[in-house]
């Protein structure tokens, strides 16, 4: 940051000094010496004053007057008597050059002339061009910085989309070149970690499933002499197999989120369908309040997974009652599932969405699950720019509320 500030300060300082010196040189050697009609006329008047004799008739553009024929101001009269050339203006604003001949009586007027353009206009014009040049120089200084910042944006978007081919194109003229290089090192590490994760998913899928299959086959071939031990081993194998399936399913969500396709569908029908599936196998009492014909733009397959996980969660930890609601408000669509279980304390409500986290003894693997259900819910909702929050239920347990943008 110090390097960036020093570079900017030095660049602006040098640019301002160079522009001021250049402008001053141009002004002295070009603008002030630029001839115009009026200044040229003054030079002609001085020449005429020095060489003009009594032959005014030979000069038709001149006319001789008596000095007393015009009411001069005292200071104007004094300047004329001192052989100076004075400038006056007629009723139309045109300039007249007046001077006395050597007899100090005969007055000569040259003109009328259009007055020279006000010099203030040139000053403002030069100021404008000076600042314009300074802006252009700043653009040249900022261009490498801008390219590096745009590269930051491109790389982050590239990683977010799952593209791991991170390329480094740093500019040695940029004031943040060191930061850019460090960012690319970090991006390469992130890409490497993401690639390792995908390889791990593949390894779990192939390397762990094969020995599990052999172990299950060996247990099936055992004699029945140690039935209790074999039954326990079979339970452990099934638990491991279930955990692997959950882990693979959660890991596959990362890949699925890269190609998520959204389309409009009837959320009301999907909610009723998931409730009917759960009612067919559950012994709980259901209270359902669902508005009709609510349509959202989302991925129906993954939203169904969200509804299924939340409903099954309420069925597992609720005692006897489950309340489901779906309502459309002015700016959002709200879906909630409540149960009459033990609930979740406020300090643990964020933790339940973390993978493999079970916050208390009532929510353990013996009831089913491995702490991934709510993590999957939160990840899917994140894709849809939504979020699940936990509140106290009117039934006495926990209430899981999802708000979809309308």
TrEMBL record:
One Pfam match: HATPase_c
Residue intervals passing through the bilayer: 123-142
Biological-process GO terms, alphabetical: cellular response to phosphate starvation
Gene3D superfamilies xrefs: 1.10.287.130, Histidine kinase-like ATPase, C-terminal domain (3.30.565.10)
Gene Ontology molecular-function annotations: phosphoprotein phosphatase activity; phosphorelay sensor kinase activity
Reaction catalysis annotation: ATP + protein L-histidine = ADP + protein N-phospho-L-histidine
SMART domains found in the cross-reference section: HATPase_c, HisKA
Enzyme Commission code(s) on record: 2.7.13.3
GO cellular component terms attached to this protein's record: plasma membrane
Keyword vocabulary terms for this entry: Kinase, Membrane, Phosphoprotein, Transferase, Transmembrane, Transmembrane helix, Two-component regulatory system
InterPro entries the record matches: BphY/WalK/GraS-like, HATPase_C_sf, HATPase_dom, His_kinase_dom, HisK_dim/P_dom, HisK_dim/P_sf, Sig_transdc_His_kin-like_C
Residues of the Histidine kinase domain: 203-406
Coiled coil location: none
Protein name per Swiss-Prot or TrEMBL: histidine kinase
Organism from which the protein derives: Pseudoalteromonas phenolica
């Amino acid at each position: 940051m110090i390097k960036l500030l020093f570079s900017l300060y030095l660049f602006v300082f040098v640019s301002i000094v160079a522009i001021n010196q250049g402008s001053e040189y141009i002004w002295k050697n070009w603008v002030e010496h630029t001839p115009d009609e009026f200044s040229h006329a003054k030079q002609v008047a001085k020449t005429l004053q020095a060489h003009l004799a009594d032959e005014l008739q030979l000069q038709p553009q001149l006319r001789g007057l008596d000095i007393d024929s015009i009411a001069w101001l005292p200071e104007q009269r004094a300047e004329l008597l001192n052989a100076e050339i004075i400038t006056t203006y007629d009723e139309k604003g045109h300039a007249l050059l007046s001077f006395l001949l050597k007899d100090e009586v005969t007055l000569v007027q040259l003109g009328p002339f259009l007055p020279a353009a006000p010099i203030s206009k040139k000053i403002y014009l030069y100021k404008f061009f000076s600042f314009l040049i300074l802006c252009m120089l700043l653009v040249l200084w900022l261009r490498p910085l801008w390219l590096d910042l745009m590269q930051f944006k491109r790389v982050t978007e590239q990683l977010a989309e799952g593209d791991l081919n991170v390329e480094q194109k740093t500019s040695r003229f940029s004031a943040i070149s060191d930061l850019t290089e460090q960012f690319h090192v970090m991006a390469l590490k992130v890409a490497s970690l993401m690639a390792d994760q995908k390889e791990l998913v593949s390894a779990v899928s192939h390397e762990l499933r094969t020995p599990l299959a052999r172990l299950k086959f060996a247990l099936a071939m055992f004699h029945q002499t140690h039935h209790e031990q074999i039954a326990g081993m079979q339970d452990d194998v099934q638990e491991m197999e279930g955990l692997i399936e959950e882990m693979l399913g959660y890991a596959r969500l990362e890949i699925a989120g890269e190609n998520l396709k959204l389309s409009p569908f009837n959320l009301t029908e999907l909610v009723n369908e998931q409730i009917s599936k759960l009612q067919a196998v559950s012994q709980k009492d259901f209270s359902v309040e669902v508005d009709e014909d609510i349509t959202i733009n989302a991925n129906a397959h993954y939203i169904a997974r969200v509804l299924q996980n939340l409903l099954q969660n309420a069925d597992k930890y609720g005692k006897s009652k489950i309340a489901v609601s779906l309502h459309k408000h002015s700016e959002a669509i709200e879906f909630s599932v409540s149960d009459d279980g033990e609930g979740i304390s406020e300090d643990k409500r964020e933790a339940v969405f973390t993978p493999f986290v079970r916050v208390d003894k009532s929510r353990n693997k013996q009831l089913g699950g491995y702490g991934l259900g709510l993590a999957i819910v939160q990840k899917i909702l994140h894709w849809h720019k939504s979020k699940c929050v936990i509140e106290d239920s009117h039934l006495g347990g926990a209430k899981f509320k999802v708000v979809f943008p309308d």
